[in-house]
């Protein structure tokens, strides 16, 4: 994509000003507890007619990510948890979806101050194993996500007040026989020497 670094700069305003992906309707999953859980983020999953609600669920002394799916008839599914009883707080989820129906969820882990990413594949109702977007020891919080073209753009804040922006290829589900027709998977920390961009704004 041409001039992607400039595109990330333009995306900064949208990312840092973004709130919930959808204005929260009054109809929320029965397991959501207002005043106890974190505020829900809702997003329409393209191509499915479904809406996903994702929030930080307070249970057994910690916050876990919770997700429920509302189908076209308005019925909510059972809740699927991420990080259940792991002794860590998964908080402040941010969501985005691509045109194929893949939903991306970034969140902060309070104890480590790392930003992690998990994916809900098209038509799926389970999380992929989360991967860190920031290294251990670099304290970050308040993630935001957007899909721009064929890239996933992520932003978060540093404790010094800066805003960092990274971009990654979109998720490509594994095809039968292990053959993929798309970009390489996410290499969030640049361990493979890729060219994923990073930008920082004070």
Concise account of the structure shown:
With 202 residues, this protein is mostly beta strands.
Write a structural description:
The chain has 202 residues and is mostly beta strands. Helices cover 7% and strands 39% of the residues. It is built from one helix and twelve strands; from the N terminus they run αββββββββββββ. It has a four-stranded antiparallel sheet, with no helix packed on it. The protein has a four-stranded antiparallel sheet with strand order 5-6-7-8, with no helix packed on it. The longest helix is centred in the first third of the chain and has 14 residues.
- Which sequence of strands runs across the widest sheet? 1-2-3-4
Enumerate how many helices there are, as a single number.
1
Shape descriptor reads globular
**Global structural class:** mainly beta
| Secondary structure: helix percent | under 10%
The whole-angstrom Rg is 17 Å
Tell me what portion of residues adopts beta-strand conformation.
35-45%
Q: Tell me the span between the first and last alpha carbons.
A: 25 Å
Q: How would you characterize the largest beta sheet? A: 4 strands, antiparallel
For the secondary structure, the number of strands is: 12
**Low-confidence parts lasting 5 or more residues at pLDDT below 50?**
177-184, 189-202
> What order do the helices and strands follow?
HEEEEEEEEEEEE
Mean pLDDT: 81
